[in-house]
Amino acid sequence: MSDYDTQDGHRSWAEVMQLTRTMQDQRGDVLERMRQIELRYDGDYVIPMPERPQEKEKPVTSPSLMGELIDGMSQRAASVPFMVGVPAMRGSNQQSVKRASRRRTALQAVYHESKFDLVRRTYYRHLTAYHTFTLMVVPNWRTGMPMIQSRSPLTTFAEQRSRDEMRPPEYVAFISTRSASYLRAQYPMSRAERGGPIQENPGVYAQEWDIVEWCDETHTRFGILGPTWDTDQSDSSRVSNGGHFMQTATAPMRNNMAISEPIPHSFGICPVVSPEMPSLGRIAARLSALTGMIDMADKLSALDIEAQMKAVFPDTYIIGDGDRPPTLAGDNWKDGMTGDVNIIGGAKAVGVLRTTPDPRTGQMVSQLERNFRVSTGLAGSMSGENQSGLRTGRAIDSIMSASVDPRIAEMHDMTAAWLPHIQEIVIRGFKEYWPSKTYSLYTGNISKSDLVEFTPKDDCDDPDYRSTVSYPVPGADMIQLTQVLGSLAGANTISQETMRELHPWVNSPEDQKNQIFAERIEQSLVESLMQRAASGELPIDVGRQVLDELRATGDISKAIQKVEAFLRKQQAAQPPPVPEGMGAAPAQMPGLEGGPGANQAPLPGEVASPGEVSTPPDVQRLRQLQAAMNGASNA
After folding, report:
1. Are 115 and 92 in contact, with CB atoms under 8 Å apart?
2. Which residues have a Cβ under 8 Å from the Cβ of 276 and sit 6 or more positions away?
3. More confident residue, 451 or 19
4. Contact, 84 vs 467, CB < 8 A?
5. 42: part of which helix (H) or strand (E)?
6. Are the C-beta atoms of 470 and 81 separated by less than 8 Å?
7. Is 10:216 a contact under the CB 8 Å cutoff?
8. Distance (Å, rounded) from C-alpha 369 to C-alpha 295?
9. DSSP H or E run through 84
């Protein structure tokens, strides 16, 4: 035992060891099933086949159904981001609403700093393969904020709860493997010269040891369980654990000790969630029960390929002449693919044994593959295969949705049920570890790039840290979600604002509403200018000035405002003097507005005929109207 074995406010090392051994014993069979799934996912398993001398290792020739299932389901589930909600704890109080908004921003910033888009894809793979996942919150001292991590269920041993207990665990043990040299360097208490089990001998530095990371409501602790492969123990006191041989709860434990003091944390609760999917039986049982089907399909596929190769290169036989046994000139039989000729003495005949592979083998492989797809809901269209012979994209999507969407919806519901516990731990971490620190937080969303000021002691003063995680349409991908929300808004079932609030890609509905309104006003300004320019109401020179200002500022409203101010100033100024030899100032002439047929203005002292002076279009139309009216009255 270690000197750190105390009971002042935390579990003793003896209690930690006893609970860890009990959890190992209870989960041994389940972990072995998980390990078998992982081996099929990685393709790291062996199919028994007839051995031949000097035969090269055969490549994998059958489809990776387990990898296709796990990756396809998890990628589809993770493609839709969830929505985070934080309620105002004091109703419509404006300060409470602002604090809730800043807490929501803080949670989004933690997700961004934790690279949660990738973490989410990892734990969805765990959820698909093992029907469970593990998330843990730890303080990140580099960034000064909590961080969310995903842990492998293969190394997680959580408090055993019944399926009816929908609560986080009170304690969790993470068991991993480290080399002796790593333990001696990182944990001095593990050294033999300080009472530990690891000798100062370079010959044993590569030996692997199982260490435990214990975490409960108040403390975190590290310790050594023993060597990963303990050859001194009998097989009856060990159980298989995915390549490890763990000591059972009844076996004597040797070489175990605490290698760190109990490290208190300030979360107030165990910072880990490790839920299990709803099931009638044990977790990982539904998928692991199908590994035999995959193995059989792989073996039949390999044997079928072997039979095809045998048909191409059949066995050769020799019939002797009866007087003496046949003899071969040379040491070895020459392969026909080399082009060399085999010389045989004392032979009556040479023949080949040709065989035709049974076509039913390929049919059986296809049937096993289909059985796996039907049992797991793995639609062929997820891998780009149209197995139903459908011709329209809508029909293919409907078939795949009927197979996949209920399973994806269950995974989304798991996220919505358990991530609020992680968010509560994150808020507790902010308030307990860095209460007075003022953060300038960035959520990583393109639609909202402004930094938000957040101070935990001011914005987390509510005793209740409730928050929500939701999917607007669980089970739907982004295209389906957008179509559903758009149809509801188009049918006036929900408002446009509600649609923006429910869409995960719209981070700030109010900002988007204002942006859409501004874009519509800008579009109306552009259309108004174009209509006035087309009708002749807007002088060409003024249109040119607006275009130049728009290119300079990049903002149509600022360009119009600047040109408008220039025109008002010009209109309020005195008319320019008439240059010598001209009838009017050039600035007062219509220019392009007068058209190519505009006449010159008369010189001073000359009397111009009505057709020589260019009059504005409005004045011309007025004169035509008066002439028409005078002609009608004279008649």
Report:
1. no
2. 131, 132, 163, 283
3. 19
4. yes
5. helix 13-42
6. no
7. yes
8. 11
9. strand 83-85
